[in-house]
Specification:
Blueprint: H1 3-10, E1 19-20, H2 27-35, E2 41-42, H3 45-52, H4 61-74, E3 79-82, H5 91-101, E4 105-109, E5 111-112, E6 116-117, H6 120-134, E7 139-144, H7 146-149, H8 154-166, E8 171-174, H9 182-188, E9 194-196, H10 201-209, E10 214-216, H11 220-237
Parallel strand pairs: 1-10, 2-3, 3-4, 4-7, 7-8, 9-10
Antiparallel strand pairs: 5-6
Helix pairs in contact: 2-4, 4-5, 5-6, 6-8
Length: 238
């Protein structure tokens, strides 16, 4: 499926009708979500890491790209890939490897090792280089981590988001933003906003009402599935 199809899914959405993108962690889970009728999918790096036996943030890039490629091959809907901070790859190599997987989009975060925020000006410059290399071939979802490890100031998040959009990001993702600041973010940021929901209809409905353009789940669906398997294993063992 083409990036134009994926990009179009984000545009012109009515209020309260966000694009909901489940997060497959392997080919089997991708098929389940696609067969359920979802028009596109978005891999979570933490969920893929867990499926490969790694801690979040520790997956070697070769294994992450290979996992994304398997997921893409398994379904006939567009797939966006969470590739964390880009693994230190130069923009040309990063874009080339992403396109080789068949992914039509990516998440790129503005923190390092889940501990330090990147300088927003330098990060915006880097995003602009990624956009220049990709042209229109990738949908870029720029993650904003100020609520995760930064000051938590909504003004900082808005300023970063605006820089990233100006650099060519198609969507911004203020991870872990509190519900009470979402109206301020929605007012200050032009274009699509990605928010993370829990694995339940109520969480999705709340974020839709609060102005999300796009909803993803991070590793929550993989963890929900593992919890269900754990309960089954306990019953079988008993």
């Amino acid at each position: 499926m083409s990036v134009s199809t994926f990009r179009a899914l984000h545009l012109g959405r009515a209020a309260g009708d966000p694009l909901v993108l489940p997060g497959p962690w392997d080919a089997a889970s991708a098929r389940i979500f696609a067969d359920a009728g979802f028009p596109a999918l978005a891999t979570p790096s933490a969920g893929v890491a867990a499926s490969l036996g790694y801690e979040d943030g520790s997956t070697p890039p070769d294994e992450m790209f290979a996992a994304v490629a398997r997921i893409v091959r398994a379904v006939a809907v567009p797939v966006s890939a969470d590739i964390e901070g880009g693994y230190g790859l130069a923009p040309a190599e990063l874009v080339g490897r992403l396109l080789e997987t068949g992914a039509v989009g990516c998440n790129l975060e503005d923190s390092e090792n889940h501990a330090t925020l990147k300088d927003p000006v330098r990060h915006a410059d880097w995003l602009a280089e990624v956009r220049a290399e990709a042209g229109d071939a990738l949908f870029i979802n720029a993650r904003v981590d100020t609520f995760l490890i930064g000051t938590g100031d909504p003004a900082d998040a808005v300023a970063r988001a605006r820089r990233y959009v100006a650099a060519g990001a198609d969507c911004v993702y203020p991870l872990a933003a509190p519900r009470e600041v979402l109206a301020e973010l929605r007012k200050g940021i032009d274009g699509p906003i990605n928010l993370a929901a829990g694995p339940d209809r109520e969480s999705v409905a709340e974020l839709a009402w609060l102005g999300a353009t796009r909803i993803t789940f991070g590793p929550q669906l993989q963890r929900y599935a593992m919890g269900a398997i754990g309960e089954l294993a306990a019953r079988l063992r008993a």
